Amino acid sequence: MATAKKLPSGSWRVQVYSHTETILQPDGITKDKRIYKSFTNDDPFPKGKRQVEKEAASWAANKEMGSKSYNKTIGEMIQDYCIAKSNVLSPTTVIGYKSIKDNMMVSISDLEADRLGSDRIQQWINEFSIDKSPKTVRNAYGLLVAAYDLYYPARRIKAKLPQRIKTNTYTPSDEDAKILMEHFKKDK
Question: 109 in helix, strand or coil?
């Protein structure tokens, strides 16, 4: 397993060998170039180091098993998720998911899905929950987590969601029930 190194910025980085490409030099000679996949985490504490090492190990394990690397943006991932589930989910649900992607994920839609961390998702939730209800935020977050579970099953996203709004329902008292019953008895 690759070990994370601390960068001057305080972030942790792990580089994992991906593949070798043959490059043609200007003089006609070919040269092999090793290509590495880089993983970073902005958390300067040991937790950040563990997370980035886990992410790199997961990617390396999937690569060794022969699975294709899924390297798309959040918007493309959500769209692929909607297409993959279009025959399983109701048409209304799929339309709702596309609406969430188009209207509520604008700030993260262009970010690479495999590089998005829980810290950026938490920022998105904070921005998003200013003018949206907690249920709307939970629905959008649920869609994002479901798409990650499909395309990045080893990766777990955790974020603090806004508290549910408690409804204040009125329960009639015995006195109220008696008044209603008296009212209906008068109508007979």
Answer: coil
